[in-house]
């Protein structure tokens, strides 16, 4: 690869990183929020590296005058980056012009629901009295399968997530995908929704309803399922790879 | 591309037509209208059909995972290449001679323990190890550092403690098994390793007399980054392909048998290529598996995985990468099973 192309590649990669981390929130489709400062710093560094290289290149050209091949005239032997460097254009251009969407129903439908971490079985606080009660999918699953006091019984809850179809059944899954580092380690948590037709896959919805009686509540035989009373569309949360309550209750 | 340019230049010379402008810019070939037409039609067609293929859910997931691995690793790769270029340009060779024991047999354990100081993912340590060899450090010691740095640094150990709350034995077992593997691999290299396996280009020379150190630093930084970055993309693609092709439900089929589960999680660590700062969380989520199998996952993961093999093949040569990775997997699995069996 020639020197000018290397500079272009460095600057493109840097601008691509800055585009997804500094100017937009696109980076949240791939990594966690904590990576933001690192990504911005990397973007700036890459642009600086490209610029420094351009300056050095221009200087040497003026010095050398007739420097035939334009490639480095002195000591060390990196006369050009290896072929593999071409591949870096793919992520750089992809970040700039063709950023793929966040993982969604396709990934979730191929995974079993994540086993919710089983903590100490008896430390459930009493549920707040608000109705409908906003809950995360993990919390709901934990309450249904572990809370011996059966506090969730008869309560109306409100869960948010995106739609994943469950085959030909008349039920569907409300889903969240969680990542612990980047999208390569995605895991999904699902709650089966009964009683309403499935919205199109990948739609973000808030579902209000009560536990769908199946198995013994408070034991692992209980299925994480909900009889839906209402389903409403909501905006996709900014940070979609978490199982958190939406900041504004109505989205 | 380079070849096309050269050919274009040769044509030019053969035609004795173009005045050599000395800037290396090739002149227009004679058949340029045809080229222009091809340049307009072919990419258009490819873009149209390729674009439709790219929008299928599987391809979107593939692109997302591929880009995610790349984006996640880039900052650490930059850190590693900056560090390696700095070692090359600014640190005199005598520093290493003073810090490391003269005899390689003793240098190996010191280098392994020194892995604590590089807080980063495994991508960072490959270029650093290359530069260390270039500065006269014994390859055995450099490879020990290469293996131990991503596995036992404070960030990774803290992440492990967070991922396995109330289970400090897991942190200790990870530290011991990783360090043990790195040491054994270092000594194994002393015993059996051959320098011919290393690509000659990997033997860097360090700072040249007379040149500007800063220019040396920049050139080394840029070269290392472009080089390693390209191989990072190869590894990310392999990981994404596995991620999309094999449904995670297959994973559960192996959880039952203790021996099979150890081997399966070792293999999973290789193909998943999760970065070492996150693999503890992934291991914690594989709750169907025995603690020993999960320990093996965390010991193998930072030392051998698809993107690392690609990176090492690019840096040290294919002959080295294949042998070294294969031996490391065996040693790491044994170390994980032995230490896990004793502690967990």
* Broad shape of chain B: globular
Query: Percent of residues of chain B in beta strands?
Result: under 5%
* Count of all domains of chain A: 2
Helix coverage percent of residues of chain A? Answer: 25-40%
Supply the CATH class of the largest domain in chain A: Mainly Beta
Number of helices of chain B: 16
Protein name (chain A): TIGR03943 family protein
Transmembrane segments (chain A): 38-59, 84-106
InterPro entries (chain A): DUF1980, DUF1980_C, NA-bd_OB-fold, UPF0703_membrane_permease
Domain DUF1980 (chain A): 149-241
Explained architecture:
The complex is a heterodimer of chains A (251) and B (344). Chain A has 251 residues and is α/β, with parallel strands linked by helices. Chain A folds into 2 domains: 3-97; 105-233, OB fold (Dihydrolipoamide Acetyltransferase, E2P), CATH 2.40.50. In chain A, 29% of the residues lie in helices and 18% in strands. Chain A contains 5 helices and 6 strands, in the order ααααβαβββββ. Chain A has helices spanning 3-23, 36-64, 89-97, 105-109, 137-146, and strands at 133-135, 157-165, 172-178, 187-194, 204-211, 225-233. In chain A, strands 2-3-4-6-5 form a 5-stranded mixed beta barrel. In chain A, strand 1, helix 5 (137-146) and strand 2 (157-165) form a beta-alpha-beta unit. In chain A, helix 1 crosses helix 3 (89-97). Chain A is elongated. Chain A starts with a helix and ends in an 18-residue tail after the last strand. Mean pLDDT of chain A is 83; it is low at 65-79. Chain B has 344 residues and is an all-alpha fold. Chain B has one domain. Chain B has helices spanning 2-15, 32-54, 57-90, 93-99, 104-114, 122-134, 139-152, 154-163, 168-192, 213-245, 249-253, 258-272, 279-285, 291-300, 306-316, 318-343. The longest helix of chain B has 34 residues, at 57-90.
């Amino acid at each position: 690869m020639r020197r000018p192309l290397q500079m272009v590649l460095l600057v493109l990669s840097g601008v691509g990183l800055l585009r997804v981390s500094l100017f937009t929130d696109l980076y949240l489709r791939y990594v966690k929020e904590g990576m933001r400062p690192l990504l911005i710093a990397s973007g700036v560094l890459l642009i600086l590296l490209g610029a420094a290289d351009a300056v050095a290149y221009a200087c040497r050209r003026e010095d050398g005058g007739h420097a035939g091949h334009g490639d480095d005239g002195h000591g060390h032997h990196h006369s050009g980056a290896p072929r593999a460097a071409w591949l870096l254009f793919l992520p750089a251009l992809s970040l700039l012009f063709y950023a793929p969407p966040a993982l969604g129903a396709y990934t979730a439908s191929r995974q079993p629901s994540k086993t919710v971490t089983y903590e100490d079985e008896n430390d459930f606080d009493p549920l707040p009295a608000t109705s409908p009660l906003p809950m995360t999918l993990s919390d709901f699953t934990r309450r249904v399968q572990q809370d011996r006091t059966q506090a969730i019984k008869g309560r109306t809850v409100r869960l948010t997530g995106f739609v994943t179809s469950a085959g030909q059944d008349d039920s569907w899954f409300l889903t969240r995908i969680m990542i612990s580092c980047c999208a390569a380690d995605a895991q999904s948590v699902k709650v089966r929704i009964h009683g309403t037709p499935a919205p199109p896959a990948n739609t973000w919805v808030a579902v209000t309803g009560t536990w769908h009686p199946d198995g013994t509540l408070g034991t692992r035989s209980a299925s994480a399922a909900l009889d839906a009373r209402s389903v409403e569309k909501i905006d996709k949360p900014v940070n979609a790879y978490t199982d958190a309550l939406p900041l504004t209750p109505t989205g | 591309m380079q070849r096309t340019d050269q050919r274009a230049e040769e044509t030019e010379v053969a035609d004795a037509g173009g005045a050599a402008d000395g800037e290396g810019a090739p002149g227009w070939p004679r058949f340029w209208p045809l080229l222009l037409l091809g340049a307009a039609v072919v990419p258009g067609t490819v873009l149209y059909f390729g674009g439709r293929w790219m929008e299928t859910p599987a391809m979107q997931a593939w692109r997302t995972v591929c880009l995610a691995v790349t984006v996640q690793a880039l900052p650490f790769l930059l850190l590693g290449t900056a560090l390696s270029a700095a070692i090359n340009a600014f640190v005199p060779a005598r520093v290493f001679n003073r810090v490391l024991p003269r005899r390689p047999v003793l240098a190996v354990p010191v280098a392994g323990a020194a892995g604590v100081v590089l807080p980063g993912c495994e991508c960072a340590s490959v270029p650093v190890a290359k530069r260390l060899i270039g500065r006269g450090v014994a390859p055995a010691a450099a490879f020990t550092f290469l293996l131990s740095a991503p596995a036992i640094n404070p960030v990774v150990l803290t992440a492990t403690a967070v991922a396995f709350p109330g289970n400090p034995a897991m942190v200790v077992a990870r530290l011991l098994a990783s360090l043990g593997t790195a040491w054994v691999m270092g000594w194994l290299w002393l015993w059996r390793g051959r320098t011919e396996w290393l690509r000659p280009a990997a033997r860097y020379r360090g700072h040249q007399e007379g040149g500007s150190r800063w220019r040396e630093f920049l050139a080394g930084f840029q070269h290392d980054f472009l080089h390693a970055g390209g191989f990072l993309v190869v590894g990310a693609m392999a990981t994404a392909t596995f991620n999309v092709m094999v449904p995670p439900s297959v994973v559960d089929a192996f959880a039952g048998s203790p021996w099979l589960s150890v081997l399966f999680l070792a293999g999973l660590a290789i193909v998943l290529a999760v970065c070492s700062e996150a693999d503890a969380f992934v291991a914690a989520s594989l709750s169907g598996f025995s603690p020993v199998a999960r320990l093996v996952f965390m010991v193998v993961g930072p030392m051998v995985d698809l993107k690392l093999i690609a990176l090492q093949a690019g840096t040290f040569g294919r002959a080295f990468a294949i042998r070294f990775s294969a031996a490391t997997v065996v040693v790491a699995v044994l170390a994980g099973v032995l230490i896990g069996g004793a502690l967990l």
